[in-house]
Amino acid sequence: MQLRYNFRLYPTAGQRQALARAFGCARTVFNDGLRARQDAREQGLPYVSDAELSKRVITQAKQTSQRAWLGEASAVVLQQALADLNTAYRNFFASITGKRKGPKAAAPRFRSRKDRRQAIRFTKNSRFSVTAGGKLRLPKIGDVPVRWSRSLPSEPSSVTVVVDAAGRYFASFVVEVGDEQLPEATNEVGIDLGLTRFAVLSDGRKIDNPRFLRRAERRLRKAQQALSRKAKGSANRKKAVVRLARAHARVADARRDFAHKLSTRIIRENQAVMVEDLSVKGLARTKLAKSVHDAGWSAFVNMLAYKAARHGRILVKVDRWLPSSKLCSACGAVAESMPLDVRSWACPCGAAHDRDVNAALNILAAGRAERLNACGGQVRPPLTVAQAGEAGSLRGAA
What we know:
- There is one protein chain.
- The protein is α+β, with helices and mostly antiparallel strands.
- It is 40% helix and 17% strand.
């Protein structure tokens, strides 16, 4: 399994300038390649191949006075920018022809110089390395200080240098990691994700929703108001943009940290985890859109998925159409209606339910059934031999 290990970089002023040049060169190569293919399409010419495009926008472009400065960046960085364009085109073509599963991929778009988030990628061919002193050595940039929070499990195959909207630099290493089997556990848990409570477990535990965005709304609003008062193009406006981006980055970092810690704890404690396959995109188009995005369900479930695969656990996604809240976990009866303001209800069979705990129990039961069927269990009772009086057609039947 391949994973990304991210670490904070602290480049010097000169290294930041070198990185800015590399970002600009990669962006220019990407845009030149995209423009060449768009011009060929408009003129009715054949599709420009990957090799021909590399020759035009990199090899030949460096020999011109307009693009001679492309030589200031590593050749691997330029080739990887073009590889990203080729991948984007392949995904687009596969999407419109129906060969690509999942959401539709749009056609590549030009990269903006005003986008504060920039990235470049170095592969093994570029001969990047980690020095004995713990610095990241990048070609034509130098030895960049790294804040190591943990050691790399294996030799990285590539590293992506990213600067985010808040002006922070990160190194993202792609490493090959082996499976780390955890001791087998006897517990199985169903998880009901929600907005009032972030998660309710089938064992009765309730995890509060941190609401990171809601808690930071006042600070974000003040930062946005301060930005709107600054004159466009001024130095103070640039500073205000960074302050607003840092405020948003703190929210995103806190949400990601919460999801990592909770998913790790659940995977360690349980052998099998059952979750509901929610349609987050559909819920994000409702009046609850801000709360849905603030919860970050998709990121949390994705973390559960890869951690379960790595540590030998089982993750089962239950059908989103399961009436988990209206279904009685004791007798299986389905209530006619269940408004959102009803948090507890009683079944005619005599069972009293907490709405969220009952939903988690139903998700656990449905996940166990799907897991049994996937492992070879019986989906339906076996066929029985018909009795003599039942076989064949009745005499005299038309």
